[in-house]
Here is the input.
Amino acid sequence: MKIAILSFYGRPKRFISSNRIYGLIRGLSQLGAKVYFFTMPTFLPPDECFDVSSLCEDIVEFSAIPIPLCLYETGRKIVQQVVVKNLLFESFEKSSGQPRRRISLLQRFWNWRYASPIFRDNTQTAGYLVLKRVTERRLLRYVQEHGIQVLFTSHAPPIAHEFGLYLKKRMGSHLFWIADFRDPLIDEYALVGQSGKLTKFQKEILIHANLLTMVSRSMIQNVKEFAQSEGIDVAESKFFQLYNGFVEIPECSSDGLFLDNTDRKLRICYTGTIFQGRRHLSVLFDAFSDLSEEERSAIEFIYAGPQAEFVRDLAGKYQLQSLCQIAGMVTKEMALRIQRSSDILLLLKSDADRGVFTGKFFEYLFSGRPILVVGDKDEEFNDVAMRVGGVRIVPNGYDGSRQILEILRSLLSAPRLQEAIEAEFGKRRKEEVSKFHWDSLSRSLYERIIQEMVY
Here is the structure.
């Protein structure tokens, strides 16, 4: 079977979303499928990318114009410092309430840019401007000439599904199209300024796609309700739950930055993006600030990710600079080494989350370390977390801070730290975790494809 996977991610290790695509490419190729990969060009060196070339029959890059690095970096900083701060932001005050929203001209421009035919290019992460029409025609010729039977397109950004819709409309029953939703196409943060356009686009996807893969039951239910509200009859067989999973990633040697812990402090880490205004690091910092100076001296918090300035400012507000190690952007291998050298991994969730399973959660599971989750309203997530074990969930807000404070004091006063951590968080159930390995997830998808194409 010839399967083409189309995604803006998959090669750069720095993006957690690449795990989904890399894991799927690896899993399907091991099952005997001939996999072709359609993706963005990349300016990253080979050691910062997954080696997908050895797994694929071919890699076809989108037609794109590189954006000069200086303009790319300047634009990214403007987006982070000006636009995003106007979209959503988190109060630095203790026990902050719900995030506030600003619906400004900047927000409307940003949302329009993301959905417009000129700028739907993901340049803020890829550093390239996609030539959409040229790419569509190239991909159509390639799919026809190589006899590709299955096309898997993964959102985000939305242009991935636009390519899929274009190819499906022109090839009809000769192409089995799988529209993958790593994230919702429509949510409360994307509606301002683009709801009408995205609603029409999602309706077309539901009508033309042969299979719809989504990361949770909640997302599937939301899309079913959307279809019903729009008067679209979507067969139950079109929906397939495909979790974000994990896959082995080669690591660096055991020595290096942040790995040494000769003082044997209680080490807590967070690696990756913090969505300000949606997920609240302040809940943890509230708890830190209520510890005694002696207790704080026995704790180390490490942050590795793009919001280094935000975390540094927050630590300053709480006067917690002494216990915070801020690494900023690091390689994928370094992030994994930080996780595995930590005692507790921090995961932040919004109270608005319903069936939100980030790639980070599964990466944390693979590390084998205990996970502290801040945010307890996502029942579907909570069920999975309790099933795999080794996870402690606390609410957002004041109650969450009090519970974290109790956990920290209990661990700090224990004579044997590791035994106390295991007693507090419980054991990880390996047989449950293995279900989320991409080898297992790929097999379930492959079997479903065969079933759908045969019948």
User: Anything to note?
Assistant: The CA atoms of residues 259 and 341 lie 6 Å apart. The chain has two domains: 2-63+127-247+438-454, 266-436. Confidence is low (pLDDT under 50) at residues 79-104, 109-125, 188-193, 251-258. Residues 69-87 form the longest helix (19 residues).
